[in-house]
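Duplicate of earlier report; DNA polymerase delta subunit 2 input re-posted below.
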Amino acid sequence: MELHPSILKEISEEHNLIPQPVTEEYTQEDDFLILEDDLQRVVLCGNIDPQTHVTGINIAVLGYTEENGKFFVEDYCYSYVDEPDILPSLSMDKYVLLISGFGLGKADSMFPLQLLIDMITGQVGDSQSHYKFSQLVRVIIAGNSIGKEDPDPFKSRFLTRKSKSATVDSMRMLDDFMSQLVISVAVDIMPGEFDPANHLLPQQPLHPCMFPKSSKYSTFNVVTNPYDATIDGVRFLGTSGQNVRNISAYSKISDPLDALQKTLDWGHIAPIAPDSLSKPISLLFIY
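Output:
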């Protein structure tokens, strides 16, 4: 991938060479695939689309070697993944609520969140919604509870120490909201890209000391990203979205649901992790 970010190209900018283009997508039509094992590399061509694959996939190809040294692919398959278990039979309906992107720290983010908590706790809504939310067994907050902090050019230019007051105030606000929520339902909170946690995947749980009010309840849980849990016999596996966004940036797979489906087909939750996801990265999470 010619547009792939490279530290060597970044160094070349210091020597007044051609700078790298600023872009959020790194694919172009002349990208090609290379199959690599512990002995050699070979360029793939034929019945395989480079625009729907990313680095880090385990794949088996069927075909033949052409005179120019390229391998013509007639067919291919990915790693085998067991069929999911049949969902257990339940005597009553149960629900798990998945939410993310609170973005606390913005003035317009407080009222919708308070309204959501009022709906979950049964303070607003009709009898039908009250009954449905009474069957809620878990709330999973999938990252980015804290909003992205817009850089202040004046502060970055004249202050030597970054101000953390905005993050502290946002965490205090989040703790206040969570303390209302954990009274009525179990809550699992995952870290995200903008939350105060380590940036590299897998992200470790937010520290309980950030939630002095909520952490007093046994229904409050800080968990990792990616997160794997079994709730009433049903297995949940998910991330805060960095892997999906990264797959879309390094391929022509634009639909997030298609990218999620690809992680199941490939048998790998974050195939690009060592290559580009949260550069640089030293840990790899494989499903």
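Helices lie at 7-13, 110-120, 127-134, 153-158, 165-181, 242-249, 256-266.

Merging into the original ticket.
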